[in-house]
Amino acid sequence: MSRPCTCGLSNNHSSQGITSVLHFLKLNIDACRLFICHSNRVLAVTGSRVLEKAVLGCCRAVLQALPCRGKKVKFITGSRCCFESCLMSTFTQRNGTTSQSMGLATRITNEYRMPDLRNNTITMPGRHGVFDFGETVSERKILISCFIPPGKTDEQFLSKKDAIIEWLNPDNGLCQLILDKEPGRVYEARLTSGFSFDRAVRNSCTFDLEFFCPDPYGYAISDETFDFAETGTFTASRTLGNIESYPVYSLTSVIPSGTDSYISITTNGSELQIIGRLAAGETLIIDSDLMTAKVVDSNGETLRNGLPLLSELNFPVLNTGDNTIVIAVVGTSTTFTELNIQARSRWR
């Protein structure tokens, strides 16, 4: 059971000594390193107590001197942490494993809400400036600072580092990255560079991770879906995300061969005609993000390429808020069964 540390002045330190200690002490809240450092040298965290004798009697003065800016700060003895901050964070990577379950304290110090932009321009000889053709969003980078608390034997410390390296192995390809400070969102990411363990004290260390997200957008973990079982005009209202999305349309119908029988799906005034043979029990899946289409059977097995069934490559796009969906059947032998829309809502 942890207990608050003593806040009275040590008999071995005068007020002048405390002032001197406070002058050089720095509690790195912003980087959330979980220890007090003096000239970049760790003084404070050990496995048995929070503060070394040199600053044991200065807790109250340290708290008063910190630029807390509303952060919750608490000193605890008998534990592995010297303070708790409301800006602490965890992340999940690969098979649902969290940084907390790996025994890590983590902190996102820089939040890149807007990824880098690539300006699409063309220069012309003899003309000042450039022609501007807009911009495209580049990849996203997510930087996370991590700390392995002390209190382990040499063998345990080495085993912990080996487990972390295996967990974050970029050979596993893109994995889901979930940040607890961005609830309901998921990124596809992998490490973009190696990292080193910076030894701190008593078998503890810090290290920095840089994740690379080729798709810069965060996607809804619990996505919005819309189901329509009859023809007509409908409204699909997106409540998640802050930018247009490229949905997945799954159409179950019976469409005979020939150009005089088809199903028309109009999304926000943009029409897509499905012309071609679609038998009973088959589903046409149109992926606007990948710009592909395929026909699958009732078990989800791919039967054939679905692009020839599209009159043109006019893939649907859903806006934030309300979207108007119009479903119509042309031809007496054409039967509409169901249209399922997976919104793939996303955030910039």
Give an account of the 3D structure.
The structure is a single chain. The protein has 348 residues and is mostly beta strands. It starts with 14 loop residues before the first helix and ends with a strand. Mean pLDDT is 76; it is low at 1-88. The chain has helices spanning 15-24, 59-65, 154-167, and strands at 25-27, 36-38, 41-42, 91-93, 105-107, 117-122, 131-137, 140-148, 175-179, 185-191, 198-199, 205-213, 218-220, 225-228, 232-238, 248-254, 262-267, 270-275, 283-287, 292-296, 302-305, 321-330, 335-342, 346-347. The chain is elongated and about 80 Å long. The longest helix has 14 residues, at 154-167. Strands 4, 5, 8, 9, 10, 11, 12, 13 and 24 form a nine-stranded antiparallel sheet that branches. Strands 14-23-16-19-20-21 form a six-stranded antiparallel sheet, with no helix packed on it. The chain has three helices and 24 strands. Strand 9 (175-179) and strand 10 (185-191) form a beta hairpin.
Number of strand elements: 24
Regions with little confidence, pLDDT below 50 for 5+ residues: 1-88
The run of helices and strands is: HEEEHEEEEEHEEEEEEEEEEEEEEEE
Radius of gyration: 29 Å
What portion of residues is helical?
under 10%
Strand content: 35-45%
- State the end-to-end distance: 44 Å
Q: Give the CA-based shape.
A: elongated
Largest sheet data: 9 strands, antiparallel
Structural class: mainly beta
Counting DSSP H or I runs of 4 or more residues, the number of helices is 3
Mean pLDDT across all amino acids: 76
